[in-house]
Structure formats: structure tokens, C-alpha cells
Amino acid sequence: MEYSIGDFSKICRLGVKTLRYYHEIGLLLPTRIDKFTSYRYYNEESLTRVETINRLKELEFPLEKIKEILDTCKDDSSIIEYMEERLKEVDRQITEYSLIREKIESFIQQEKLVPEPLGDVVIKDVPGIFMASIRFKGQYSEINGHLTHLFSVFESVINGPAFCLYHDDHHADENMNIECCLPISRKIPAAGFKFSTLPGKRMATIMHKGDYSTIWKAYQKIVDYLNKKDFPIVPPSREIYLRGKGKILPGNPENYLTEIQFPVIDDEDPITKSIRTKITLNIHA
Predict the structure, then answer these.
(1) Which of 100, 151, 257, 283 gives the lowest tally of CB atoms within 10 Å of its CB?
(2) With 50 as the cut, is the pLDDT of residue 83 above it?
(3) d(CA 101, CA 132)
(4) How far is Cα 128 from Cα 160, in angstroms, rounded to an integer?
(5) pLDDT per residue over 167-213, tens digit each?
(6) For residues 127-157, b (16+ Cβ closer than 10 Å) or e, as one string?
(7) Nearest CA among 265, 270, 275 for reference residue 229
(8) For residue range 232-245, what is the model confidence (pLDDT) as tens digits?
(9) Whole-model pTM?
């Protein structure tokens, strides 16, 4: 039986525009075109072809590939090669989406773990951290580039907020001994990075909310605390970037949240303490 394009559209549940497009690309040709009206007509074999097209579309074959299959294959056994190729593509997509899922989960986890800012110095035990890092001698302005590099390589295995270790025992405008660090859940083979476990320590910590231009106030507060308690100020100190420039959106500097940490040594032996006191007095003399 022959069907007009309108009737055929109702039967196969494809829009008239879609049928015309299938005709244009050679995927589904009308069985007859009226030479006077240019109307398209289809038959029952066309319905069978539409059914096959729909089945292949469910497997997400592109239309050009469906046309190739229909033009060259006559039975199921002859499309095994196409199915194997499509299966490989699906496996590649699964791998890609798994990586995307890991990145999204990591992003959500890190944003949910950001604590509320506290204005006082707190002593706490910080657990060990497995991390990838880049250590360099330079200036503060170089930190962002190194952290961006770390994020680009280890984005799918991030296991905590990025931070910097400052290995100098005093501030230097240039050639500071800085280590940019990123906690990771597992090692990914990559050149140019150091992989290590930062030992757990007892730390004096303080939160700073706002941009980095006023972070000195938090440093003043924690140094005053350590001096008042007569704890030695030893490197490396840490700056943990709990909330900073976003990975996706630029972020608001007023909402930046940084945790500053200094090691707490409360069991310093008397001789070392005496030497440290003399050195301090000589420095300030």
C-alpha cells in the first residue's frame, strides 16, 4: 500500500520535516514523487526501513553511519563490525564520563568541606597528607601559576584544598622557598611533580576571611600567640586555600578563606630553648 507523506508521518511517528531531511541526505527515499505535485509517497518497505533507522538511533549511531549500514548490510551478521566499533566508542565515552564524574564529585566535596571562619588561634592535630607538589624559589606572584598547573593534572584525584608550604624561617621579598601542594587520593604518573606524605603535626591555626592584602593581620595574631606562649616559630608554615579564586567562576575576594598554620613545639628541650632565646635577642638587638 502507498502512503502520502502526511499519512506516513502519522504511522511512523516521524515529523514531515524529518522525513524531508531524511530524503535530502539519502537516508530514506520516497518510493514515488508525483511529477505534477512533487508530493512524496512511501510504501510498507519504507516503514521497515524507518524501524531499522530508529533501532540504530537508539544505539546512538549517527545518521551518516546509519545510511552507510543500510546501504551496505543486508542482515544482522553483516553489521557486527559496526557494532564492535560502536561498542569501543561507548567504552571511550564511559571512561570520559567517569573522569567527568570524579571531577564533579571532587568539586562538590571540596566546597562542602569549607569551614566557617574563626577569628581566634586554635591548636589542633592535623593528619598526614598524601600530596603532589612543586617546590621552587621565587615570589608570591608565581604561586597561582604553579597551583593552576597542579589542578590541571590532578583534578580528578583532588583530596583536599590546595596549600603552600613556606620553608624559610623568615620572609623574603625574592627567592622565597615555597612549595605548592595539592592533596590527592592516588598517584597519577606525571613528570615534574614531587609525591610525598606530609607528616601529621600539632598546629596553631587561624582563619583569615577576605583578600590576601589584609592577611598580615592574621599572621600578626598567630605570631603574637606563639610568642606569648613561648613556642618557637619554625618552618614550614602553611597557607591553606579553603576558598579562593574559583576553578569555574572567578569568585569574590571578600569571601576568600585562608587557614594559616604554624607547627607547635611545646616540648622544646631547655638547651635548644636557651639558644633560640639568645639568637632572638641578637636579631632584635
Answers:
(1) 283
(2) yes
(3) 21
(4) 12
(5) 987 766 678 999 999 999 999 989 999 999 999 999 999 999 888 88
(6) eebebbbbeeeeeeeebeebbebbeebbbbb
(7) 265
(8) 999 999 999 998 87
(9) 0.60
Cell numbers found for residue 258: 585562608
Query: From CA 203, how far away is CA 262, in angstroms rounded?
Result: 5
Over residues 137-157, mean pLDDT: 92
- Cis peptide leading into residue 236 (ω within 30°): yes
Cα separation of 243 and 142, whole Å? 19
Lowest-pLDDT range, 230-234, 256-260, 268-272? 268-272
User: Rounded distance, CA 232 to CA 230, Å?
Assistant: 6
Report d(CA 231, CA 219) in Å as an integer.
15
DSSP-assigned states of every residue in 169-204: SS--SSSEEEEEEEEBSS----TT-EEEEEPPEEEE
Cβ–Cβ under 8 Å, residues 32 and 41:
yes
- Read off the C-alpha cell for 51: 524501524
pLDDT at residue 48, rounded to an integer: 92
Contact 200, 128 (CB under 8 A): yes
Q: How far apart are CA 180 and CA 173, in angstroms?
A: 17
